[in-house]
Design goal:
13 helices, 2 domains, about 65% helix, Multiple sugar transport system permease protein, mainly alpha, MetI-like fold, about 260 residues, transmembrane
């Protein structure tokens, strides 16, 4: 996995440190000569990356926790209600996953335009109120259903409410799932290009993918400027994934157990 993903990242960083205004080298260089950080300064100046990064962070700071929270609530409810109702909801969720995302753009656009919410960041956050994706709910449903039945019986005997059971015992028991879905939700929210393109028109509200699009049309001699913007856009998802790994289950070679 390292051999697959690390070399492109190294070439990305190397290209961003090339001096702008020069013809692209005939072959990729791991260490450019001379090293220059002018591409980063020009990327923030020409593409407005500073404001776009803040906008993307604001959207992610709201959308990611809300989507994970709603998905955890819905998944826990599915794991505790009757099997017949659960089967119907799961089937409906699978059908919703089969619907192309582009098919929802027009009805969503009509709704947000009628409410006067276009050209704002609200349409980028609103899907989180529904758990962002049925996939998140189904993953949580499988995780909560995999917990021991004795745990739920004990909570019922202790006269705990469903919310107390979810918060004190069920949610801590699926911590790796929460970490994984948080990282996945952040990456998908951070890299979302289509929704901002449809709903946002004010340049001051552009998210980072839209800002990178404006840099992609620069002259080929200024490719380090675009690569510098790509590095800025890549650092947060990589950081979030590395932080989330501490909660992922790892196999211990000596015992074969999960820690």
């Amino acid at each position: 996995m390292v051999l697959v993903f690390v070399p492109p990242l190294l070439l990305l960083v190397s290209g961003s440190l090339t001096a702008p205004g020069q013809p692209p080298p005939p072959t990729p260089r791991l260490v450019p000569n001379p090293l220059s950080t002018d591409g980063y300064a020009r990327a923030f100046e020409l593409g407005g990356l500073g404001r776009a990064t803040l906008n993307s962070l604001a959207v992610a700071a709201v959308a990611v926790p809300v989507s994970v929270l709603v998905a955890a609530w819905a998944g826990f409810a599915l794991a505790r209600i009757s099997r017949r109702v659960t089967a119907l909801v799961v089937a409906a969720s699978l059908l919703a996953l089969m619907a192309p995302a582009t098919a929802l753009l027009l009805p969503r656009f009509v709704v947000f335009r009628t409410l006067g919410l276009t050209d704002t960041l609200v349409p980028l956050i609103a899907p989180a109120l529904l758990g962002a994706s049925p996939l998140y709910v189904l993953i949580y449903y499988l995780a909560f259903r995999g917990l021991p039945a004795d745990l739920y019986d004990t909570c019922r005997l202790a006269d705990l409410t469903p919310v107390q059971t979810w918060w004190r015992f069920a949610l801590p028991g699926v911590r790796p799932v929460t970490a994984g879905l948080t990282a996945l939700s952040f990456i998908l929210t951070w890299s979302n290009f289509l929704d901002p393109l449809v709903y946002v028109y004010d340049r001051d509200l552009f998210t980072l993918p839209l800002a990178l699009r404006s840099l992609s049309v620069l002259d080929p001699t200024n490719f380090p400027v675009f690569l510098a913007g790509a590095v800025v856009a890549t650092v947060p998802p990589v950081t979030v994934f590395m932080l989330a790994q501490r909660w992922f289950p790892h196999s211990d070679d000596s015992t074969g157990r999960l820690w």
